[in-house]
Amino acid sequence: MINYKELKAKDWREFKKLRLEALQECPDNFASSFEEEVKNTEEKLIKILDDNYIIGAFDHDDLIAMVAFYKLNLRKIEHKGIIWGLYLKKTYRSNGIASELLNEIIKHARSNVLQVQLSVNTKNIKAINLYKKHGFIIYGTELESIKIGNNFHDEYLMYLKLKK
Question: How far apart are the C-alpha atoms of 58 and 1, rounded to whole Å?
Answer without folding.
Answer: 8
